[in-house]
Specification:
Length: about 260
Amino acid sequence: MMKNAVVFALICCHLVMGSQPVLRNESETITDTEPFQGLKPNLMFQVLKRLDEIDQRISHLERRIQNNHHLATGVITEKLEGISDKLESINKTLRQNVGTYYGSCLEAPARLSDVYTIKPPASSIAPFQVYCEQSYRKGGWIVLSRRFDGTVKTALYDEFEVGNEATGYRLHLGEFVEGNAKDSLRISVGMKFSTPDRDNDEHTGSCAEFYASGWWFRNCMNANLNGVHRKFDAQNSTMNWFGFRDDLQGLKESSMMIREVPA
């Protein structure tokens, strides 16, 4: 009995010896069974109390470490955001400098979708601003049209050309490469651009006037990305692309983008 009790007391004292000299002194006075029997409950109480205090201190330190970690993370994040904002501001300033323009969106140095000034090579026209989409398929896209509000489907063509004013902005289209939106623009190939005040379609009436938009209408359409931006109306004048769901229900979003063919 005494051997087991003394071993337990020594272990406990060793755990707290550095910060609790009182326990060491008391344990040193244990010489026979009777005094030990009287001190044991008090010693156990003090040991448990001390262990509880140590546990509380450890918990407190853990909370402080965690709080400091969150604080440091917040400060670092804030600093990084500040640096990013400054870099973007510098980038925009550089792009806005007089004479700063690029041959195409592919030549824009920053891989960031934004407004850039471009001037196509060998072109006599003055530099002009365009929105460059730099994330889709490695970027370099000039956005011709973007209308928002969903499920995204695409139709990709290897060539897209619009003639000049003398041709009535006639549409030329290359091969349909791929896309889950299907080829709904093929019917418009070779057509001039029609508007409500300029009817260039093959219909007996005016498709542009009927659908209240401008497009390369034929008789009248399989697609109209310039249609009214709403879900549905009785005369199908909504923004639509028939191959999206094989109907003319209005779309939530559409984009038309072009880029030069890499050499």
